[in-house]
User: Fold this.
Amino acid sequence: MNKGEFIKAMAGNAQLTVKEASVAYDAFVGALTDALKNGEKVQLVGFGTFEVREKAAREGINPQTKEKVTIAASKAPALKFGKAYKDLFN
Assistant:
């Protein structure tokens, strides 16, 4: 399912027009992005928790030259699904 198909599904489930669903989707993604950029966790009960996780610097190996390289520390967004949501699939 791509973004367009997802927005059409949202529109059908929420009885919205595709344009209204697109605005709602963009608002959701924007609010989520802003919260994560500000270092906040976003907890959606029954679904999961969005957060930014820090990855420590580490050593890696260039597969072509077999040379050791340092991989810099970084931050990455992450989603941990809640138990209730995971249970829907088992």
Notes: Residues 46 and 84 are 6 Å apart (CA to CA).
